[in-house]
TrEMBL record:
Keywords: Dioxygenase, Flavoprotein, FMN, Oxidoreductase
PANTHER family named among the record's database cross-references: 2-NITROPROPANE DIOXYGENASE
GO molecular function, one term: nitronate monooxygenase activity
Name of the protein described by the UniProt record: Putative 2-nitropropane dioxygenase
Sequence intervals crossing the membrane: none
Signal sequence interval, chain numbering: none
Amino acid sequence: MSKAINDFRLKLGGKEYVPILVGGMGVDISTAELALEIARLGGIGHISDAMVPTVSDRRFKTKFVQEKQRKYKYNVGSTDKAVVQFDLERLAEAQRLHVGRTMEAKKGDGAVFVNCMEKLTMNNPRDTLQVRLLAAMDAEVEGITLSAGLHLGSMELMKDHPRFNDVLLGIIVSSARALRPFLKRAAKYKRLPDYIIVEGPLAGGHLGFGIDDWQEFDLKTIVPEVLNFLKENELDIPVIPAGGVFTGTDAVDFFESGSSAVQVATRFTVTNECGLPERTKHHYFEAEEEDIVVNTISPTGYPMRMLKQSPGIGSGIRPNCEAFGYILDNHGHCAYVEAYNRELEKKPEKISVPDKTCLCTHFRKFSIWTCGHYVYRLKDTTHKLENGKYQMLSAEEVFRDYQYSKDHAITLPEKKQSVSSDVSLAAA
């Protein structure tokens, strides 16, 4: 008899959860509302701390970005961004606001985690990462998922916090090889991760593979390699596949071969609780497989999957590191800033930057449409209404479909009345 996700449970920190994690999509795409709804339903929802001062300004009417821009306004015309630094106390305040307010609102038997990216270097990689990690623990977050990097120094950054041994800690890796050095460092602090998310090459956004070889990898191959590696080293750590898990049956297949949960995201991008503008959600519904590209326009150096219609691709927008600057390395360099200045020198009257994009500005404006490979299947998860638009889903509808569906079936929501075709959609 076929099984459903609901026949399994994830055990973490002495508690049991519906074994569904919703990934932390930034900037505020995985909103607090989405994470809280997943927690209410018994799963684990992520918020992301990507560009958390921007998120705080939007949600709590703070002025973190404005203050930083005012402080460094004199440097806007300079190609040297080394002077542009984040106020660590203000960064901690933004993190505590975003995480703390979310935790205060939490209900249900599930959990809320925060996704922390190492590649968010912020012109001071070590200190800004430490501030974000410690402030999240201060704000009583239940778990921290370490992402976008090897995080070889992250345990050191957290080790003196009183919640270091209490908060659930996980790491996202793309291979057993990437996991090995992290575990070695973690063992030094007698603090192994509580869970390991194995993200395959079909995931959305940044990928942990090379641009030339990502197609050679398969999540169904990588996950057993990680499971075998842990078994060989007598380590009992839950493994959570991510990237391309589109149905509940996809998840069950992993559970029956030893995985403990799955992390999903793409199907939640078109829910009411997701932070994407409504027009962008409709672009996701309308996407075809040939619209999906993996490119190297991210200044981080990682390949990134997105829709080729993303308006931020090829944009020559002026860098605004004085206000943002989240991708600046510890020398104040950013690949987009360098590419922009190159194009500015060549053709100052009409700038287009084909090979890099300003992630700070375009992620903030939702104009780089990152997506999982199966985004083109979203149209099969809902109804197309009489006005030509697709019916939005609730997070509960998607979660319950994952939780109870069998045999790769997707249960469509109850069809609603078509809204007027002249209702204007939010700007992308």
